[in-house]
Amino acid sequence: LLVYCILFGINKLYPKIDNIKKTTEIKNVISSVISSILIFICIFNFTTFKHAIPLINPFSWDPLLFKVDKLLLLNNHPAQLIQTLLPLHNLKYISDMCYASWAIVSVAILLWQNISPQRKLRTQFLLSWLLSWIILGSICALLFSSVGPCFYDAFYASTPKDILLANKQLQQNPTEYFYLTDAAKSMLVQVAQSESFITGFGISAFPSLHVSISALNAIIIGKYNKYIGYIGWIYVFITSLCCVYLGFHYLVDCIAGVIGTCSIWVLTGKALNKQNKKTTFNIAGANYTTRTRI
After folding, report:
1. If 240 and its partner were Cys, which of 1, 2, 246, 254 is the partner (CB 3.0–4.6 Å)?
2. Would you say 96 and 181 are in contact if contact means Cβ atoms under 8 Å apart?
3. Residue 284 Rama label (left phi>0; alpha psi -120 to 50; beta)
4. Which candidate, 165, 192, 185, 208, places its Cα nearest to that of 65?
5. Distances (CA, A) of 71 to 59, 81, 150
């Protein structure tokens, strides 16, 4: 409700900002400050809601998601397949670092777009980012309440053999490294199984917001430079591998994250194009054209 109230307030405030008879830079600064406040409140609300998901709809979708993964890979388990195809001694450490880099990359691109002078692209990106969290990270996460393979045995009475084997292989990796994801897993389980409440420590597998936001980042980068955009999509693929290998997500979670985000981007673009559409009307024999600027 707080997010929607702020959106309503911004909708009323922006016309007043446009009427300020000062430089464009001042308007951009005001817009960036408003967006930053909204983003902070959104992140707080979304992570808070994530923690409440099992209280509203208990975890129950993992068995089906596991079966879909096996079906997609012809009865092979994704994590075990990655371990077989990439038999690297320090694969877990590499995956751990890549997974942790997501937060840095995502925040950097979010801040970049927040101050970007490309108004239409900035608006489309921020709206898509917001809708991805609302639709994918909140609504879908609630409807398809799930924990992911690495948390399966902590929340279900019986665990599939493939998941047990994959989790066991992860635990047998070199111990000379400190794994951020292991610390995160331990804390997430402790918080979820206790009555304590910590913002940002909710468990949710379907769909993957890590992959979803990575895909959105790749899309926006590609709008500025298509070659760097290709690198962005490679990063999406690597992030997906890390999510599956480390057990945070099923393969279908990653696929749903990409498809959902791309759909949101396209629909948001169409909506903004309609708002930006020229309208021609005739008054006393003369044609006049108006344009709504985004």
Report:
1. 254
2. yes
3. left
4. 208
5. 21, 13, 19
* Residues contacting 207, CB < 8 A, separation 6+: 136, 137, 140, 141, 144, 253, 254, 256, 257, 260
Condensed to tens digits (0 to 9), the pLDDT of residues 69-113 reads: 889 888 888 888 888 888 777 888 888 888 888 888 888 888 888
d(CA 273, CA 275): 5
How many Å apart are CA 292 and CA 275, to the nearest integer? 6
What are the φ and ψ backbone dihedral angles of 286, each rounded to 5 degrees?
Answer: -110, 140
CA 187 to chain centre: 21
**Backbone torsions φ then ψ of 166, nearest 5 degrees:** -65, -40
Which DSSP symbol is given to 135?
I
Token code pair at residue 131: 């809708």
> Does pTM top 0.85 for this prediction?
no
| Positive/negative CA dihedral, 101, 126, 203, 40 | positive
Pairing of strands 286-291, 278-283: antiparallel
- Give pLDDT tens digits for 85-95: 887 778 888 88
